Amino acid sequence: MLAAGASTRMGSPKALLDCDGEPFVRRIARRMDARLARVLVVCAEEQRAAYGAALRGLDGARLVVNPEPARGQLSSLQVALRHAPDADGWLAALVDHPDVAAATYAALVEAYRDAGRRDVVVLPRFGERRGHPLLWGAALRDELLAAPLDQGARVVTRRDASRVVAVAVDDAEVLRDVDRPGDYQRLLDARRGGGGGGTARS
User: Could you give the domains of the chain?
Assistant: First the structure.
């Protein structure tokens, strides 16, 4: 989970915002935990204590520190890759997509296993739009580590369309980016109205 950003547009740490009684960082880690061998939460050094408290009791989640989070999101993904060099793949969840359904994470993992190859990028598609999170196959590790920080991981995704696997999901939350106070209010309004937490289909 990429959670090292400064949340300047939100005005307070997005990872600690409440959704249905739990902070974003815990909500996402809990939904990922049953689908993955381990969950790495990449944070900045100054966030470690607060995020650790939010994750207390989730045995499958571990904090790792990005020493230079200002370098951007890809730098946090690269930190995770270096901390888990033997992984079969990496599912990169964003902390500002807090209500992605557990079934969506499961569908991405299942599609990766079904692909039968380790050089694919698996991503969710809601309607005609692609969203987050993305799952990177093990064979793409060196490409991601070599990708320019100013271009982000998308340069690897766009390099070869034949290795992109899009999974159709009934989960509009793959498109919801909670980046500003207004975005957060819309999320809360949707939760009160019974929205969010959809299902997935592959």
Answer: 14-200 (3.90.550.10)
